[in-house]
Amino acid sequence: MIHYVKICALVLFLCAHQGFSQKHFEEIIKKELKFTDAPSKSTLVITNIFGPVSVEAHNGDAILIEVKREIFADTDKALALGKKELELGILKEQDRIILRPKSPYFKYQEDGFKFNCCNDNGQPPYEHKLSFTVKVPKNASLNVSAVNDGDIRIKNTSGSFLKVNNINGGIALSNVAGKTKVHCINGDVDITYATNPVESSEYYSLNGDINVRYRKALSAAISFKTFNGELFTDFDIDKQYTDTKKTASNGEAKFKYEAFPVMQIGAGTTDFKFETFNGNVFINKI
Questions:
Q1: Is the pLDDT of residue 3 over 60?
Q2: SS3 sequence, the chain?
Q3: β-strand 106-109 against 112-115: which pairing, if any?
Q4: With b meaning 16 or more CB within 10 Å and e meaning fewer, what string describes 230-258?
Q5: Which of 67, 204, 221, 257 could covalently link to 268 via disulfide, CB atoms 3.0 to 4.6 Å apart?
Q6: Pick from 53, 275, 109: which is nearest to 182 by CA?
Q7: pTM of this prediction?
Q8: What is the pLDDT of residues 182-202, one digit of tens each?
Q9: Residues 49 and 106 sit within 8 Å (Cβ to Cβ)
Q10: Residues 190, 171: contact at Cβ < 8 Å?
């Protein structure tokens, strides 16, 4: 009986996998865009749902976009519908450009996507994946997010800020600069700075480690909060203390007090906040 159950489960898995991959459409979309304002005053926003995002800086003033668009479906009809409905959305504003998947099944909002499957539309009969490869002017700021099926990788940028969010995938920032805010749910965060941030920055991972490498001349006050993790560093610690924060509760006369251990490196001129739930933090010097 046990062998029978295992064989049935295997057959069902193979049938489901075969049905899913039976119909597949793939194309490469290439675009070249430019900011309205100067790149140093502009932000590229990339918001993805299914698929990885890779961004690398270059010395030009154009945004060079290459997106692999893939549609998966069980029938020709569903595949044709996916090819028609799922598009690369581009929104140009005065100081930013937004790249995102565009479909009747979800609506783009400033804080992410609102899924419309249960209201105006039913569940789509197809699946999709957008894989972004983008070259951006070196001094442009970035706001990049993803949800499933891919990591976010950013290289060589030096804009005024970097905001990066990923839910089911890692975040890797290499040779970057600027104020940083990263938020990762299921994945590791790995960052190497070309120049240390001079503005307060935040680093968060729920289920993963955070590895950050700063330049030797670091001057920072580093706070750390975790449920099940530790912090390790090869920097000399000049001072340790506890920072207590008070926050109001729903506008009522109730307050929540939290104490965070802080370690000071150098003069402690810039505040860095690290937080994990299940993961360690490694802060090392280059």
A1: no
A2: CHHHHHHHHHHHHHHHHHHHCCEEEEEEEEEEEECCCCHHHCEEEEECCECCEEEEEECCCEEEEEEEEEEEECCHHHHHHHHHHCEEEEEECCCEEEEEEEECCEEEECCEEEECCCCCCCCCCEEEEEEEEEEEECCCEEEEEECECCCEEEECCCCCEEEEEEEECCEEEEEECCEEEEEEEECCEEEEECCCCCCCEEEEEEECCEEEEECCCCCEEEEEEEEECCEEECCCCCEEEEEEEEEEECCEEEEEEEEEEEEEECCCCEEEEEEEEECCEEEEEC
A3: antiparallel
A4: ebebebeeeeeeeeeeeeeeeeeeeeeee
A5: 221
A6: 275
A7: 0.87
A8: 999 999 999 999 999 999 999
A9: yes
A10: yes
Give CA angle at 209 (207, 214), nearest 5°: 145
Contact call for residues 47 and 100 (beta carbons, < 8 A): yes
